[in-house]
Amino acid sequence: MKVLIAGGAGYIGSTIASACSDAGISPVILDSLVTGRREFTAGRPFYQGDIADGPLVDRIFAEHSDIDAVVHCAALIVVPDSVADPVGYYRANVAKSLEFAAHLLRNGCGRLIFSSSAAIYRAGQDLTVDEGSPVDPQSPYARTKAVCEAMLADIAASKPIRMLSLRYFNPVGADPKMRTGLQSRRPTHALGKMIQAHEEGVPFVITGTDWPTRDGSGLRDYVHVWDLAAAHVAALTRFDALPGPVTVINLGSGAGTTVRELLAAFNEVADQPVEAGEAGSRPGDVAGAYTRIGCAERILGWRARYDIADGIRHSLQWAAIRDEILPQ
Ligand SMILES: NC(=O)c1ccc[n+]([C@@H]2O[C@H](COP(=O)([O-])OP(=O)(O)OC[C@H]3O[C@@H](n4cnc5c(N)ncnc54)[C@H](O)[C@@H]3O)[C@@H](O)[C@H]2O)c1
């Protein structure tokens, strides 16, 4: 089997590519390198360019006529940037995905896996969601994901292409074999900031301490990036058995972890403990949510295998070698 991975030089896409290779599926990478890294494409057929570039997509399919499916991870993903530049975000994530879909149809691609996000949900009072929960995105970034899902579903309803939307929760960790990890030296999510506080010997600041969670800090569903990648392998393998032309599946661990719990888990794994400071929540912050699992297990035979300690350990290992693998 051969798969085209758009955005395959990024954090998640490159991990999917490694999981595919390990499972005997050949990845072909299309990436503009706007945030991705050439180093992550080493040893793989790599086309540098934009998903909206029709002649380039035609060339890829001409040179790889045996592509069976496409995984579409290519997007801009920084929430505050999407607030500052909504035009740029809708263009990059929605308009280009529409062009890409047209190029895929023209080239006879019938199987598409779309990287969506749990950020599109409005969580219930118990902070759990499932695939039937209300979609109510709270940022331009999250809205681009919801719009893309709806757009691709409309296309799949009447054209010869089937679409699987995988809604990721909060990815952590790195490839356990340390081939790839987060490109950014200064990730802005809670675990990234903990690692930074650990490196600098300063306290980690918990932003928001009066959320309706068991300890007042925000709650997330952390899912190891290798587990995410493994779910794509399962989805590619079972694609033709999906229930309909459009399928939506949540990819999370099924457990909610608060920021205080994440810090406690971090301090179990790290050599030097990080102290906690406290501050108010930031504009746009939310209490968070975690997924009810069941759908992924039933349809893909998948569930997360790595726990939060594995995610922290692999993130720390990656942070220690990142500069060797990705000079500057
Ligand atoms: N990281 C998260 O927390 C998270 C959570 C939920 C969903 N997602 C989704 O997962 C996908 C991958 O995210 P990531 O964390 O790996 O981000 P990333 O920035 O590491 O990867 C995105 C990749 O897409 C490429 N790209 C962007 N626009 C492109 C274009 N127009 N043409 C070609 N290549 C392009 C970038 O160069 C990069 O390699 C995204 O679609 C994102 O919305 C990410």
Mean pLDDT: 96
Terminal CA distance reads 35 Å
User: What Rg is obtained from the alpha carbons, in whole angstroms?
Assistant: 19 Å
Beta-strand residue percentage: 15-25%
The helix-and-strand class reads alpha/beta
The count of strands amounts to: 15
Helix share of residues? 25-40%
Order of helices and strands: EHEEHEHHEEHEEHEEEHEEHEEHH
- Label the overall shape: globular
Number of helices: 10
Bound molecules: nicotinamide-adenine-dinucleotide
Major sheet size, sense and barrel closure: 7 strands, parallel
- The residue ranges in which pLDDT falls below 50 over 5 or more consecutive positions are none
Spatially, the strands of the biggest sheet line up as 3-2-1-4-5-7-12
Provide key terms for this protein.
single chain; alpha/beta; two-stranded parallel ribbon; binds nicotinamide-adenine-dinucleotide
Describe the structure.
This protein is an alpha/beta fold and about 325 residues long. Helix content is about 40%, strand content about 20%. The chain contains 10 helices and 15 strands. It has helices at about 10-20, 55-65, 80-85, 85-105, 140-160, 190-200, 225-240, 260-270, 295-300, 310-325; strands spanning about 1-5, 25-30, 45-50, 65-70, 110-115, 130, 160-170, 170, 205, 220, 220-225, 245-250, 255-260, 275-280, 290. The strands form 5 sheets. It has a 7-stranded parallel beta sheet with strand order 3-2-1-4-5-7-12, sandwiched between helices. A two-stranded parallel sheet has the order 6-15. Helix 4 packs parallel to helix 5 and helix 8 (about 260-270) crosses helix 10. The protein binds nicotinamide-adenine-dinucleotide. Nicotinamide-adenine-dinucleotide binds next to helix 1, helix 4, strand 5 and strand 8.
